Task: structure prediction
Amino acid sequence: MQIPYGVNHNMTEQQYIRAPKGLAGVIVDQTKLSGVDPSGQATIYRGYTIDDIGEHASFYEATHLFLYGHLPCEDELKEIKKKIDYERGNIPEKLFDALKLSPITHPMYYGSYGVTLLGQYLAPEWDFSDETLFDHAIKLIAKIPVVFTAGWHLARTGTLIRPDPTLDHATDVLRMITGRMPNKVEARAFESSLVLYMDHGFNASTFTTRVIASTLSDMYSSIAGGIGALKGPLHGGANEKAMEMFLDAQEKAKAKGVPLKEYIIDYIKDKLAKKEKIMGFGHRVYKVHDPRTDVLAKYVKQLENGEYWLEVLKASEKVMKEEKNLPANVDLYTGVLYYQLKIPIRMYTPIFAMGRIVGWTSQYIEQVKNNRIIRPTEEYVGPTGLKYKPLEERCKQ
Result:
């Protein structure tokens, strides 16, 4: 029996589990944070459905739920709000100085770069006490939006929109992104999207965060890795691509003199005929319907040109259901919602991270509290038996 290179030769071949590529369908660990409910119809946040919390909970309530396992009582809510607002307003000035040197690039770079710097400023030494874990989780949750927004504005205009800790978190973050004070409906719509993005089982960025955590690296390094994974267009970025698709279709519909809600059907069919991927549709968990879209649809309707955009979204969903039997996912709707809020498209994925930071930090804590290093085994399939040759002999015919 031949045992593949890369495995422990003291074990038999039968003791190895050959996982499918991409780990699709593989359960790698247990979590109490989020996942699919037993019926397979919804995703659960600590016992609550994701759409229930997304529609009703504030950012502070949902954060408390993830970190501490329950929705906060009045005193607990006041305390976590106080901590998050304080930490959002308390940024090392040298971080801003460093971000001034950043070039104009995709803003996800500002996040991975800025979080690493924050770790150097705030946690040069690391331990795994509860005080350290929960304190730095709140620091990261509060500060990461400032890192992204400061990097964005400093690189493009040289101006810095500082945080205002007297404002609610979602209101202040949206203000820092757009440079204007949002109204209550806009702030709540934005806040709901952050809550809906907070966690979603062992997705690529969360699993990356947990892999790094399993080495007992610090929380900042682990989150920087998660940001890097989210930057990939197959994970984050779908909301950007979805909105770019709608804007391209809108321009072409206008040139043809037809309403977008009608033209989008032929537009999508044409893309499918060309074997192009339509972003914002399909999901490994939600095979029939993504309930998060129901929550977001209520806010899309309340924002600028809401009826117009809902008609476009529903027409898009209808044609994709008929042609590919794929439901819309949350990214199709956040793309439109963020456009209604006049957020630059390049900032859509960083907003994803501003919500997902709650899940990442909670997943980090859960990993290190019951840790075993994540180290799968490979099967080497390359050549063997080669021998080194001197340079003068290496390339002779």
